[in-house]
Amino acid sequence: MTWRRFSTFVQWIVLGACVGVLCGGASALFLHLLEKASEVRTGHEIVVYTLPLAGLIIGWVYERFGKPIKAGSNLIIDTIHDGGPEIPLRMAPMVLIGTVLPHLFGGSAGREGTAVQMGASLADALAYRLGLTQEVRKQLLAAGVAGGFGSVFGTPIAGTVFGLEFITLGRIEYNALVPALVASVVGDMTTRWLGIGHTHYPAPPHVPLSSLLLLKWLLFAVAIAASTTIFIELTHFIKRQMEKRIPRLPFRMMLGGVVVVAMWQLIGMSDYLGLGVPMIVRSFEDPELPVYAFAAKLLFTAVTLGAGFLGGEVTPLFFVGAALGNALSGPLGLPLPLCAGVGLAAMFASASNTPLALSMMAMELLGANVFPHVAVVCVLSYLLAGHRSIYPAQRLWQRKD
Amino acid sequence: MTWRRFSTFVQWIVLGACVGVLCGGASALFLHLLEKASEVRTGHEIVVYTLPLAGLIIGWVYERFGKPIKAGSNLIIDTIHDGGPEIPLRMAPMVLIGTVLPHLFGGSAGREGTAVQMGASLADALAYRLGLTQEVRKQLLAAGVAGGFGSVFGTPIAGTVFGLEFITLGRIEYNALVPALVASVVGDMTTRWLGIGHTHYPAPPHVPLSSLLLLKWLLFAVAIAASTTIFIELTHFIKRQMEKRIPRLPFRMMLGGVVVVAMWQLIGMSDYLGLGVPMIVRSFEDPELPVYAFAAKLLFTAVTLGAGFLGGEVTPLFFVGAALGNALSGPLGLPLPLCAGVGLAAMFASASNTPLALSMMAMELLGANVFPHVAVVCVLSYLLAGHRSIYPAQRLWQRKD
To answer: B3-193 has which fold?
Structure first.
């Protein structure tokens, strides 16, 4: 072993562990606050009416102080590819508060965007304080992404692969493999050590593959890819239309809040507000789940995110995918928890072009029986969803045709 | 969805399925013959004495008819990267017979080289008969590798990732993702449908990660990387020395056979001949396994492969890794099946630079509890083993420092 490789290795381990502790601590705080916010909201549903006001305030704060960070996860992707100025450290607290508040008031958004942005901005702060080279800095940014993702979901290996997979469409590079792995594993351990638990989903039964089942999974993947396409196009459409008509962010977010409140009143239940974890768990077990549940959650999320609220897409898309799987399990004659589990992972895999990370995530969340089904559906729906992505900054390395 | 993407997709599915059926059929025949060969050998151990004679004959046949295919798996890697003339279809039967015979007579070699070479040569025959473009042809070659690997071990997702991961060090590209997945899944189904079963290994218990455990895994990875380094260097050393002193292959293989027979007599047991599957299973369960078992198998395999026998490295390296894990489980105070399982996967991961494929393989063979431990050790030992590889043709994309 050369001295150069030894010192790089030690550096990766030490820096990766530091990033992991930072990410894990931030995720723990974030998850704790999210849980409190959800508790308050489910206890006092009246607060949902103030979502438009919350949008107005958050929008104003972001407009005033958030210019350099408004690209969110796309800023992280661009910086990992091209370098560029330090990612402002204030991204971490801003995105934290900017995500917890809408959840408190019922917006339908996720967590991974927040975790990834907190992780990356903390990692970049570390890299700049230590005066690291651009190359190592980019590796630490990927480690921050991995650490944020792995710790917020309790899936360290999926976090590692996500950190490497999400920046480019059609390729995984191993240059940040070791720091990403260390950050994700240490981050997950830190979050758990701080007493944060993660949702347990029911484990699907073992089902052997057959030709007929492969055909069913192909149909399933078509449905997932179609939903992904609708979700991405709809969110972009709402965003573009609103930006054209309402130039100022606070008013866009206020209007988004008004629409979410109106939809909430119209549908007459609170199941589609916030992360929607209880509904995800129900999708695994309840054959009576409304068939339209996936479409409703898709709409709530597209409006929330299209209006400019922060958070991310993972958990709402877990909901959409699991509910869609629930709806398809009857017609396809497949076990409910298997369809829900496969749908959960494949929806985000195709929306973010990360089929390998999400296959691993499904395995970490749901056990080994979800393999190989989830990998088959993730890859097929990834391909069928085309070159669109919830992260427009993703570089296209390999066309899908 | 564009017409172009639709037609590519259909083409990938159909061609991938054809490659899968071919690979799966070839693997089934191969596994059936291997089982018969092992049965005959364990029933009549006297045949081991004829290993030198078998080496002489196989060597002569290869010298006479095998020139264009003697690069084996490296020829596949080169062709996937650079194109080049059609891989001769006779590679499939030649490598099949050339692997089964040494197993019959007790040589210590594996199976994946054979499966991969059969799969790729069948895929290439298909590509040439159909007059496909070079681009699609290369994708089908990767699909053949995936189909061979996935079907011979019964691990379709690991097969898929292996087909993409093993050609380049430090990168996975998705250009052949869909055909590789289809070929590997269909290949595995075909092999099972033909009545072939795979070895069941005991599932490790669930063990949560901790800082102390991470430190132990780091030591574990150092031991794995050291063994990998010794294995690769020793095999290359034996090969180089023999090629320098004995120009003709049949005599090299004869001498290799003599040495294996001598070692077999010296050690006084047959545990280190052939694939060694019973010893792999024992590594998961028997705390009394000899501490030197991993070193003995390493030596038997280095001599067998260094002398020019065919087959591959996976199963013997599974043996080496599992036995090493067995030996380390006491000193490290870790559960036996977990150490054996992690060692099994990490040894080949670091020897072939395929940490992701082998992490998935461990999960497909041993269940979800082996995660995240196996991924941690695969990545660390992959990194620590440096830039050497059992496949010298592997392109170096990303240095490990």
So the answer is: Clc chloride channel (1.10.3080)
